[in-house]
Structure formats: structure tokens, C-alpha cells
């Protein structure tokens, strides 16, 4: 298989999705600001969406289903970003910080 | 068959390769950059690359929605939140602990290698398509087969907008 025909192969897209997912996990674990964790969560969702679209293109008998599911993932991601950002802003207003180490009010 | 760069197929492969590099580079910037503004820019670059991948996967509609929703709405909202809530001089940078960098890298490498192994080892068999997945089919299915989920998503979005307003407005008087 030549490097120029990579775009017609399911495995390529699965690998890209896995790499994006791994970057998201790394970001969520290592970031110390809440906004950074939110950005990493968006990377995770992108990886999942790429997997859905790849299976939709190469495997699924109904090529509209994966696209509809990806649309729903986008809507949920937009809702999650809106709620998350408003919580971050409310948190910043109380604590003057968006550091994860300052969010300890609910700690047992 | 030997592919070269100088025919349409080879050019498509080259464009895909550039697209792939854009996606991976954007994701790398988004998860490792020390400043949040640069992380958002990396996220935007990554989303442009992902939209290109969707175009390669035969769905220009989803590619357009990706650019419209993620870059036009989510990335802009995140950059506004950074402007409102993260003054640069107060940002503590770097990982959250001495062990979190290596442990995070380990967890990410474990997950990625597992997923890649599964992708390479499984014998995927493709099925015959029952439609062409065009925008028309998507619209019909959204309003017939998936109409319940469609309505639920709109309610979720409405509640998310109202909830975001209520949460972000609380304590504004102080």
C-alpha cells in the first residue's frame, strides 16, 4: 500500500482517532486549569467522532446514520462547552482562579 | 499500480497527508502548549484538519457543520472564557504535579496503543450500502427515524443555554 492511498483505508482513520483520543487523555490528566481540561475534552470528542465517521464511510450499510450521530455529538459538545464555561466563569468569580487545585469545596 | 504525485489520485493523497499533519499538529499544540490562548489556536487548527478528514470521508455537510459549530461557536466561546477568566499573569503553568506528566503520558500511550492494535488486528468486513448518505437522506432520517432524538437534542440545547445564563449570572452583584 502506497502512502498516497492512505485516505482510502479504514485503519488510517481509526489510528488518527486513537491518536486524538490519546492526546485528549494526556491533556485531561496533565492540565491544571479548568479551561485546559475542557479543551482536552473537545479533543476526546473529536477522536470519537472521527471513528464514527470512518465506520460510517467504510462499514455501515446506512451511510447517513453515522453522520446523524456525529451531528448529535456536536450538539452535545456545544451544550457541554456552554455549561462548562459558565461554571468556570462562576468559579472564577468566587475564587479569582481557574486552577483545579482551588476547586476543593466538595472534597470529603 | 504505482502512484506518483503527478496525477489526480496522487495529488489527493498528498492533500490528505497535509491534512493529517495539520490535525495531529493542532492536537499536539492543544494538549501540550503552556499558554491557554495557544491551546485554543491549536484546537482550531485541529478542528480544521478534522473537517478536512470528514470531507475525505464523503460527507461535506458534516465538514461544514464541524467548521460552523466547533470553530465558529465552541472555540470562540472558549477564547471569550479565557479572556474573562484567565489573566495571563495569574496562570500557573506546567503540569499539576511531578508525577502527572509521566503518568498522563503512560495512560495516553496505553489507550492509544490498545486502540491502534485493535484497529490493525480486526478484520473489518464492509456491507453493501442501502443509500448514498446524501444531505437529503440525512434530512429525511432526522425527521422520521430519529425525530425523537432530534427533539430531545433541541431540548437539551435549550436547557444548556438557559442553565449557562443562570449559572454565569449568579453572584454578579458582588
Q: Topology, please?
A:
The complex is a heterodimer of chains A (108) and B (174).
Chain A: H1 10-30, H2 34-58, H3 65-95
Helix pairs in contact in A: 1-2, 2-3
Chain B: H1 8-32, H2 36-56, H3 60-85, H4 100-121, H5 135-143, H6 147-169
Helix pairs in contact in B: 1-2, 2-3
Brief synopsis:
The complex is a heterodimer of chains A (108) and B (174). Chain A is mostly helical and 108 residues long. Chain A contains three helices and no strands.
Describe this structure in words.
The complex is a heterodimer of chains A (108) and B (174). With 108 residues, chain A is mainly alpha-helical. Chain A has helices spanning 10-30, 34-58, 65-95. Chain A has three helices and no strands. Chain B has 174 residues and is mainly α. Chain B folds into two domains: 1-89, Four Helix Bundle (Hemerythrin (Met), subunit A) (Up-down Bundle), CATH 1.20.120.1200; 133-174. Chain B is built from six helices and no strands. In chain B, helix 1 (8-32) runs antiparallel to helix 2 (36-56). The N and C termini of chain B lie far apart (71 Å). At the A-B interface, helix 1, helix 2 and helix 3 of A face helix 1, helix 2, helix 3, helix 4 and helix 5 of B.
Round the Cα radius of gyration of chain B to an integer and report it: 21 Å
Order of helices and strands of chain B: HHHHHH
CATH class value of the largest domain in chain B: Mainly Alpha
Rg on CA atoms of chain A, Å: 18 Å
Keywords:
heterodimer, A: 108 residues, mainly alpha, Helix Hairpins, 3 helices, B: Four Helix Bundle (Hemerythrin (Met), subunit A), 6 helices, 72% helix, globular
Amino acid at each position: 500500500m502506497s502512502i498516497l492511498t492512505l485516505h482510502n483505508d479504514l485503519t488510517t482513520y481509526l489510528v488518527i482517532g486513537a491518536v486524538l483520543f490519546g492526546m485528549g487523555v494526556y491533556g485531561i490528566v496533565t492540565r491544571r486549569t479548568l479551561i485546559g481540561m475542557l479543551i482536552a475534552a473537545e479533543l476526546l470528542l473529536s477522536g470519537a467522532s472521527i471513528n464514527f465517521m470512518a465506520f460510517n464511510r467504510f462499514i455501515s450499510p446506512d451511510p447517513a446514520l453515522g453522520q446523524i450521530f456525529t451531528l448529535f455529538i456536536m450538539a452535545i459538545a456545544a451544550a457541554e462547552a456552554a455549561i462548562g464555561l459558565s461554571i468556570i466563569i462562576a468559579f472564577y468569580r468566587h475564587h479569582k482562579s481557574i486552577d483545579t487545585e482551588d476547586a476543593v469545596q466538595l472534597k470529603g | 499500480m504505482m502512484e506518483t504525485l503527478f496525477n489526480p489520485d496522487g495529488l489527493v493523497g498528498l492533500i490528505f497527508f497535509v491534512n493529517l499533519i495539520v490535525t495531529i499538529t493542532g492536537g499536539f499544540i492543544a494538549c501540550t502548549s503552556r499558554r491557554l490562548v495557544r491551546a485554543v489556536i491549536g484546537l482550531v487548527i485541529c478542528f480544521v484538519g478534522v473537517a478536512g478528514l470528514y470531507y475525505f470521508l464523503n460527507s461535506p455537510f458534516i465538514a461544514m457543520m464541524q467548521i460552523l459549530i466547533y470553530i465558529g461557536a465552541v472555540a470562540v466561546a472558549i477564547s471569550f472564557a479565557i479572556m474573562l477568566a484567565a489573566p495571563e499573569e495569574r496562570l500557573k503553568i506546567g503540569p499539576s504535579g511531578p508525577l502527572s506528566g509521566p503518568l498522563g503520558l503512560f495512560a495516553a500511550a496505553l489507550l492509544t496503543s490498545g486502540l491502534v492494535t485493535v484497529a490493525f488486528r480486526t478484520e473489518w468486513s464492509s456491507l453493501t450500502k442501502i443509500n448514498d448518505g446524501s444531505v437529503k437522506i440525512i434530512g429525511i432520517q432526522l425527521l422520521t427515524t430519529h425525530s425523537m432524538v432530534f427533539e430531545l437534542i433541541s431540548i437539551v440545547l435549550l436547557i444548556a443555554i438557559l442553565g449557562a445564563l443562570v449559572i454565569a449570572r449568579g453572584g454578579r452583584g458582588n
